[in-house]
Amino acid sequence: MRTVLAVLVMFSAVWMVYRRRYKLLNTILAVGMIRRLAISASMNIPSFREKLLPELFNTKSHTN
Measured in whole angstroms, how far is the alpha carbon of residue 34 from the centre of its chain? Predict the structure, then answer.
């Protein structure tokens, strides 16, 4: 019975976090130091950096 209750409580906690994941993420990233650490960590991932940087610094030339 104790194990069933523990599993039920754990499942409920995971479900609540999943349901409010964007609000939690916004709250956590509102702290400047945590936001800087998260960006630094994500820029150390090569595949993430290769996909993100061209999108941010799109240098299409305009011809007239």
Answer: 12
Please name the residue that has the structure tokens 């030339």.
61
More confident residue, 57 or 25: 25
- Residue 45 — φ and ψ, nearest 5°? -95, 110
In three-state secondary structure terms, 26 is helix
Q: Of 18, 19, 38, whose CA–CA distance to 28 is shortest?
A: 38
Res 48: pLDDT: 85
CA-closest candidate to residue 25, choices 49, 42, 45:
42
Stated pTM of the model: 0.56
